[in-house]
Design the sequence.
């Protein structure tokens, strides 16, 4: 009998299709063989030596006179960072002029690396960069939401091979975000505690969906994961704002983040994935009812008409089995 | 300057990326050449002669002793149609046993046809079948939502070539649906009219995003279309329930539906697409604040990290230009 599970945090429902569920190994076979990439490409605007091919640098982390991380505006930005966020309403036409911020974070000088294969110190550099830019962009009063995300691989929407992530700051708060905030607030009002803290506590007690944990973070496949190997990384200490992450927490997050990406890489054969940091600072830096986290979504299945039409998902894997598979996946040190 | 537009009906926000927008013709070039299919395949369970390879038939439309449409349960159903929809709550585990209905609608006996190339009478047969099954499934008190949808082409999630659509009845109402209903209700309370009626009226007045219209239906690319060529078909007479569609309306819907699918087929070169009928009968058959409609989503771009993380979309086409392109697309009679 299939199960329809509800995620207590997002209120999303998912059909866990037990009768047509695949074993974790079956998700490996679906990958395509990836081509070998060179360490450097002359024609890649993100490779060292081609710094003049990108818009002016906003931020960098250097080591031994070589940049390790670079941040600059997206040359093909979806939004324009001069001007104002002017709102107009005329009948059904509700529009904001497309003011906003769209930045690129180049994650390593090496063209052929992938976050799973970076050293832990470089993952720390990436997290530090995210924190720096996150706080800087939220400082602009016109920005209402900062989304930090990565598209890894073609089916996750990447157009450039060189490892990079993106940061978009928009002058509006989308309704999806507002609904989540309202639901978290309602849970807090009803139950007297943060729904994320509760979910994490029970996931840790249950244990069977945990992938990795250390002092400050835990990675798990949620009870009602929407798709195969959909993974959440939660800070253990309640905090509503990623921008407040401490030095000690960055250390621990880097360990868990690298650990999960490595397990996906070696366990599933470098699948395409997206990740996103979910944190909403405009609510105030530290709220009792909201909890920031990272969501990693391997792109092992497609959203089809049912998902688009109902907002429900069909997951053809068992979260408990997938978590065990990743727990048992060994990575070379 | 890009524009951030809000859809008054769904409240979704979309970045219309004017600065990196493509011309309509550029979406054609992205298509892959499709392979030629035979009219009949011995190994296709949906082809005539192989009726014994499907679960027992629920419904059919015949002409000259040959079936034109067949409906039967999905052999690999996501949900199980015996048993009860039992709800359990234990800590964070909220689960409903996977009772539900999952049916296949074979749209034509011919393996190599596609809805765009079917005769109008056959499109009418498909709509009649949807109506019949929609009402029958909603009659089951355990079912809360019926989703009628089609996945056309690989990137839209099809696994079988033979033209077919699917109907899923779930024992729960997803929160996405609930939010939409609440927003429509709130608009109705504030403005005193159905938000869909208002949007349709203004789209018809504006005219520039209209693709086709006749007495009872209009097809248009909404002002804040989430993705390229995303098309809506609205009934002109207010009705909250697809199951109440009249014989005359079926005639008119078939004309518009075929017209739009043809224009997509010839204009864009048979793109992959999903369509879904959005109608919620559990609210009562005829509500003043809700309006059923059909949403057609050509899969010309990918959802990436930004969309997954923020619930906002980036549309690299201009709705006005896309609608003009489809209006101007001529189809062979």
Sequence:
């Amino acid at each position: 009998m299939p199960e329809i599970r509800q995620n207590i945090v997002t209120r999303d429902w998912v059909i866990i299709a037990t009768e047509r569920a695949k074993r974790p190994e079956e998700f490996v076979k679906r990958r395509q063989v990836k081509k070998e990439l060179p360490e450097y490409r002359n024609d890649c605007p993100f490779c060292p030596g081609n710094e003049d091919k990108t818009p002016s640098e906003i931020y960098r982390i250097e080591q031994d006179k070589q940049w390790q991380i670079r941040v600059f505006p997206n040359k093909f930005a979806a939004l324009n960072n001069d001007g104002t966020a002017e709102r107009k309403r005329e009948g059904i036409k509700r529009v904001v002029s497309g003011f906003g911020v769209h930045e690129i974070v180049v994650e390593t000088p090496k063209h052929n690396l992938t976050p799973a294969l970076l050293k832990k110190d470089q993952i720390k550099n990436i997290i530090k960069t995210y924190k720096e830019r996150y706080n800087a962009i939220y400082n602009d009063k016109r920005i209402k939401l900062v989304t930090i995300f990565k598209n890894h691989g073609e089916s996750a929407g990447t157009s450039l091979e060189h490892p990079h992530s993106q940061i978009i700051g928009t002058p509006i708060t989308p309704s999806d975000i507002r609904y989540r905030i309202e639901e978290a607030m309602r849970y807090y009002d009803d139950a007297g505690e943060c729904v994320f803290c509760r979910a994490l506590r029970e996931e840790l007690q249950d244990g069977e969906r945990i992938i990795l944990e250390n002092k400050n973070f835990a990675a798990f496949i949620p009870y009602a994961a929407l798709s195969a190997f959909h993974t959440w990384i939660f800070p253990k200490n309640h905090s509503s704002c990623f921008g407040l992450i401490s030095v000690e927490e960055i250390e621990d997050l880097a360990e868990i983040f690298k650990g999960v990406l490595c397990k996906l890489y070696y366990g599933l054969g470098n699948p395409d994935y997206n990740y996103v940091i979910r944190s909403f600072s405009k609510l105030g830096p530290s709220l009792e009812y909201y909890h920031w986290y990272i969501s990693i979504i391997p792109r092992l299945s497609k959203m089809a008409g049912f998902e688009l039409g109902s907002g429900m998902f069909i997951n053809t894997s068992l979260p408990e089995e997938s978590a065990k598979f990743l727990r048992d996946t060994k990575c070379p040190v």
